[in-house]
Amino acid sequence: MDMKETRISGELIYDGIIVHLYKDKVSLPNGNEAVREVIRHQGAVCVVAVDDDKNIYLVRQFRYPFNDVITEIPAGKLDAGETPIEGAARELREETGIIAKNYKYLGELYTSCAFLDEVIHMYLATDLSFTEQNPDEDEFVEVDKVNLKEFVSEIMEGKVPDSKTQTAVLKAYIELGNLC
Amino acid sequence: MDMKETRISGELIYDGIIVHLYKDKVSLPNGNEAVREVIRHQGAVCVVAVDDDKNIYLVRQFRYPFNDVITEIPAGKLDAGETPIEGAARELREETGIIAKNYKYLGELYTSCAFLDEVIHMYLATDLSFTEQNPDEDEFVEVDKVNLKEFVSEIMEGKVPDSKTQTAVLKAYIELGNLC
């Protein structure tokens, strides 16, 4: 089946700090026209850091869209010119103070592919050492250490809504040999 | 730690079909001010439909932000006034023709909680019967049937980037008794 949509025209609606919003007119496979709202994003990374005692390191921070404190794995936007693995190591150290010797790639995550091009690169980090936490002045982040198996149970019980956290932790848990 | 951010003022930047973009000024816990770009979304549902032979039903469609055909589980936006379970049953039937007798809730997914309030409700659907596919005129969706275990392997190999698909399928697979 021909599925391709071809861009006819477009305009930049808003060019912000995180959000870059475009409104494009496209041609559909049946010849009809449609409007596509697209948010362009610079990409991000996230890290499942697991220590030798099978604990995972989590961050809790206020997330304005939900007006609530959300539990997540360490994560952040890629800086310009930075590779995903460099961004992962930087974010992990800034948010938790952790340095990891081993990184295993867990693949890409398209957060909401219908209207947003954000890609999050996911990593499992092991062989950890611990230094000082080093957040930005206007970042308010609490770090928590939780048993990995108990945290997987919390995910399964629906207590951990964040998408990158659910996906990357379940993949890391399977990667660490817990599937039959 | 006090983490709460308080809204000082805000403006509606763009009120679109899917995307409703706001730019708010907030007060941080340390008294500083910051800008928060927030996309408001009406919410969505997705369904992991598994038949008696342990096959999963997938949809492939062109996703404009990635200029590519993406493999996903059946999913869609909630209609006004619709409950999540009603939306799940409607989307599954529209996109694949499948009617399911049993639905198990797999929890919420916050797709990108830093700047987007989208919530996707995830379901595992079993005890399936099959009718005609009934897509909208301007929807171009291919349905595919794949062995669930093989699809989980594809997810683990990084071949399935969509976030709701990775999360919901891994949760469904664990829910069906495949974790040690």
Please specify the SSE layout and strand pairing.
The structure is a homodimer of 180-residue chains.
Chain A: E1 6-15, E2 20-27, E3 33-40, E4 44-49, E5 55-63, E6 68-72, E7 75-77, H1 84-96, E8 98-110, E9 119-130, E10 142-147, H2 148-156, H3 163-178
Parallel strand pairs in A: 4-9
Antiparallel strand pairs in A: 1-2, 2-3, 4-7, 5-6, 5-10, 8-9
What features would you highlight for this structure?
homodimer; 180 residues; alpha+beta; Nucleoside Triphosphate Pyrophosphohydrolase; 2 domains; four-stranded mixed sheet; three-stranded antiparallel sheet; 10 strands; globular
Structure description:
The structure is a homodimer of 180-residue chains. The first copy, chain A, is of the alpha+beta class and 180 residues long. Chain A has helices at 84-96, 148-156, 163-178, and strands at 6-15, 20-27, 33-40, 44-49, 55-63, 68-72, 75-77, 98-110, 119-130, 142-147. The first copy, chain A, has two domains: 6-40, no CATH class; 44-178, Nucleoside Triphosphate Pyrophosphohydrolase. Chain A contains three helices and ten strands; from the N terminus they run βββββββαβββαα. In chain A, helix 2 crosses helix 3 (163-178). The longest helix of chain A is centred in the C-terminal third of the chain and has 16 residues, at 163-178. Chain A is globular. Chain A starts with 5 loop residues before the first strand and ends with a helix. The mean pLDDT of chain A is 95. At the A-B interface, strand 2, strand 3, strand 5, strand 6 and strand 8 of A face strand 2, strand 3, strand 5, strand 6 and strand 8 of B.
